[in-house]
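TL;DR need structure tokens for one chain.
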Amino acid sequence: MRLRIMVSLSLAVLKGFLALATITALAVWVKPVRAQNNSQPAASPAPAANPSPGASPQNSSTTQANNPQPVPTPASPRVSAVIEGHLELDNLIQIEVEHLQEWMSNTANDPKKIVPYINGRAIRGNYPEEIHSSRNHLQFHLELTPDTKDVWNDLLGEPQGLLRPVAFTVGLEDKPPFDTVFDQGHKIPLTVISPKYGVIALLLVLFTLILFFWLARTTNIIRETGTCQVAGKLRPYNLGRTQMAFWFFLIYVSYLVIWLITNALDTITPSLLGLMGISAGTALGEAMIDSGKDNAQTAQLQELTAEKQTLEQGIIALQSQVDNLNAITAPAAGDLSNRDDLSKQVQDKRTRLAQVNDQIQTLTRPASANVSSGFLRDILSDSGGYSFHRFQIFAWTIVLGIIFVSAVYNSLNMPEFSPTLLGLMGLSSGTYIGFKFPEKR
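>> reply
TL;DR here they are.
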């Protein structure tokens, strides 16, 4: 009886050990399979043999090592919002980048090398000024440098308004940029011209232009010097002064526009100085020639006027002597000879007086010659009518002006004219100055 009880207890203990071993093996097998199913829903677990009731803990460890847990892939960074500021050159902008902190946890990723991308163009070297990894925030100061000048000129060139919609994101310089909500379908405005400074500059330019046109219409600021002899009329327009004013306003307005958009101050090129020198030299040379002609003409008129007065007084005195000799009833032979000599002198002086009067009339321009006949007629014609040398310098000035405006509008740069082109402009101006010498005033 006692032996039967001991056998029954032994069988019960053995069954308990077998059941415990089976449960342990099943737990070891189910755990990795369940983890694999959670990380890769679409993948089915590889079939594994059911552990035998006699599986040992060593076999269970081997099974777990053959089925390691996969490392989860970190989420990609994504520009999600603009927190502070806006897109504008020389302005601060703070953005939010989702999963930035997770991305930074990888030691291979350097957040200090992140740069802005605008319309797919990397603003190289424009690294973040502040990095707030705990809030996933980056702050940039958008700056124009020699390395990024061409990129900014492409982005801001050909402005059609104060704002321009662009795609915006950030990323490492030599790698694909981060994902962004501001893609081609959801663009963000890039400020081309600051509205506040744009309005101030526009008012300044308009005031200057209106003042200039008023002065041009009512004064001699770009006209021939001197006073018009016809009351209520003005002197003709001067080609040299008009050309100088044309280049001044083109460079003046272009300089303001480039400064408004790019904040650049050193934009005047050496060729522009040469061009302004040519236009200034043309106006100066023309003024010197006209002044020399006026001085010579004035001196000649003074001499002729003085000679005219002398001749008139001499004629009166001689004629009085002739009349006295004619009044003698019985003149002697000497009186007759003297009378004939005096009469001849009177005749000679009258002939010279007629010549002096003709010269004075030639030198004295009619009042209508000093009156403006209209802008184009004044600058394209002289005393002999329309002149080709005047038309030549006028045409080249217009052509170079169009090229100048196009270059500034498209590339936001003052154009660099070649020495050949400047030589052509100088040749036209020199031809015009050369023809001024024989030109009548």
